[in-house]
């Protein structure tokens, strides 16, 4: 009996390999779809078997519905990033609210699903906008690691930034819509193998959100 008890205690303390939860990270791509870079990024994600979250701009989604459909069909999450990248504080609240609703319609007409995530352009959102987003049943999310790919940061520098700042539960900000030449595809080819070697698994933002509901801890990149 005592032996059994010892055995059980041992098993509880030293869980077998493979039952430990892996570190998690969410790659996010904003502002697309883009005629060139979205397909390149989807191909890289596919080769590594990585799932990500795309915060699409309604105007671009309307122009490239086949790319939006590809994102969705490949298992990536789609979030709302307004219709014309309208920044809170620079446009009226009414205009942004209308843009969010319009973008929901554009996305759901292609994917059949209304997004449950919203990312405010430039990460800016006041109290009223956050309240509106919540009433629509959405969670507003920004990021904790900014790759600055939009500023044409060299791929090696982007990768170094991620290595220095990533941690369990990080949301990494990247863009599939960047003015040419975009450093993002090359940076991804450095970042993904590094994160795999470092023991991370790639999840969508909603999967991180589900974990928040389980643990009760709310990372600061979830707004509101
Ligand atoms: Zn953006």
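^ structure tokens above, recovered residues below v
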């Amino acid at each position: 009996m005592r032996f059994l008890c010892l055995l059980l205690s041992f098993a509880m303390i030293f869980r077998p390999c493979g039952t430990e939860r892996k570190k998690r990270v969410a790659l996010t791509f904003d502002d697309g779809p883009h005629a060139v870079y979205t397909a390149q990024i989807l191909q890289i994600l596919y080769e590594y078997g990585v799932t990500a979250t795309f915060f699409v701009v309604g105007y671009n989604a309307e122009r490239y519905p086949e790319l939006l459909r590809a994102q969705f069909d490949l298992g990536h999450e789609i979030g709302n990033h307004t219709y014309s990248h309208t920044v809170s504080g620079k446009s009226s609240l009414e205009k942004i609210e209308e843009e969010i609703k319009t973008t929901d319609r554009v996305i759901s007409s292609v994917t059949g699903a209304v997004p449950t995530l919203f990312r405010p352009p430039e990460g800016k959102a006041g109290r009223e906008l956050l309240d509106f987003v919540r009433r629509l049943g959405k969670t507003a999310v920004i990021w904790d690691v900014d790759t600055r790919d939009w500023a044409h940061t060299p791929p090696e520098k982007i990768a170094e930034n991620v290595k220095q700042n990533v941690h369990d539960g990080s949301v990494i900000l990247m863009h599939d819509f960047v003015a040419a030449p975009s450093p993002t595809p090359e940076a991804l080819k450095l970042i993904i193998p590094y994160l795999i070697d470092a023991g991370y698994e790639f999840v969508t933002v909603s999967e991180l959100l589900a974990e928040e509901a389980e643990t009760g801890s709310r990372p600061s990149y979830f707004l509101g």
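Residues 5-16 have pLDDT under 50 and may be disordered.
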